[in-house]
Structure formats: C-alpha cells, structure tokens
Write a structure and sequence with these properties.
single chain; about 170 residues; alpha+beta; OB fold (Dihydrolipoamide Acetyltransferase, E2P); 2 domains; five-stranded mixed beta barrel; 4 helices; about 40% helix; about 20% strand
C-alpha cells in the first residue's frame, strides 16, 4: 500500500474542498482582515481531510501536506510583504511630520510672552485666560491665587508655564 493511496480516492467534492480551502486561506494571508475567508478555508480543508482519509495515518499525511503548502504560501506572502509589490499596499511608507505640514498638537508657541489672568488657583496647575482663550497652565512650582496677572514664560508642546506678574 503506497503512502499516497488517498490520492486515487479523491473525488470532485474533496478536490473542491482542498482547492477552495487553500485558496481562501491564502487570500486571508494577502488581505488580512476579519478572518472569515481564513476560517471558511480551514473548515473546507478539514472537511476535505475528513471526507478523503480512510484512517488516521492518511489524515496525518494530508494535514502535513496542507501545512507544507500553507508554509510555502506564507513564506511567499512574507517575502512579498517585505520586499515585493505587497509591501507598497500593506506597509505605510508616508510619514506625518512637521516637514509635510503635520502637527500632532496645537502650536501654542504663539502665546509665548502673553499676559493673562489666572481663573483658578494655580497649585501649580490650573486654568488661566489669555486673549479670551482659556488654557491649562502650570507654574514653576509656586502657588498663585485665582484672579492674579500671569505671563507665559515657556511653551513646550501642550505644557504652558506661567509666572506671576508682580
């Protein structure tokens, strides 16, 4: 009895299960998403093995062959994703940086040097108003009561440091 005796007993239904199942799993490799094609493909592959195998040894051989085929397909997908055509569609190559006009936070440097008034006590953090705009601010560590004139001395991202005007 040859090792691959199950090949002669594969009918149209079993062949369709294997071909469509492999196709759906490979499709899932190329276009990862929700997983429906991959799950349906695995179910079809399992159905093909169950319908074809006459014993556990034949089922094991078929599972090994399927895993080898899927491994080769995964290698090809990985190679294409890292160096080939697929890398241009799966991997984001554009950067959102200041050179291209992107800013992740508001540019608050325009407030540097402006004077305003603390709305809440600054212990050391609180809220102050500058030109009608309420901003979250911090002091250099000292307590500043509410309704006190303050000046912005540094801006770093969203962190605005103020000092009391005396």
């Amino acid at each position: 009895m040859p090792i691959f005796s199950f090949v002669s007993s594969i009918g149209i239904i079993q062949a369709l299960c294997f071909i469509i199942g492999l196709g759906l799993v490979i499709l899932e490799f190329f276009y990862p998403g929700f997983g429906a094609p991959g799950i349906i493909g695995l179910i079809l592959l399992a159905a093909g093995v169950v319908l074809t195998a006459k014993n556990a040894f034949e089922a094991l051989i078929m599972v090994i062959i399927i895993l080898v085929l899927l491994g080769i397909a995964l290698f090809l997908v990985y190679h294409s994703a890292s160096k080939g055509r697929l890398s241009r569609t799966l991997i984001l190559s554009e950067a959102l940086d200041a050179k291209s006009g992107f800013s992740g936070t508001d540019d608050l440097k325009e407030y540097l040097g402006k004077e305003g008034e603390s709305i809440t006590p600054l212990r050391p953090a609180g809220i102050a108003i500058f030109d009608g705009v309420k901003l979250d601010v911090v002091t250099e560590g000292e307590f500043i009561p509410a309704n006190t004139r303050v000046k912005i001395i540094s801006v770093s991202g969203r962190r605005i440091v103020v000092r009391e005007i005396k």
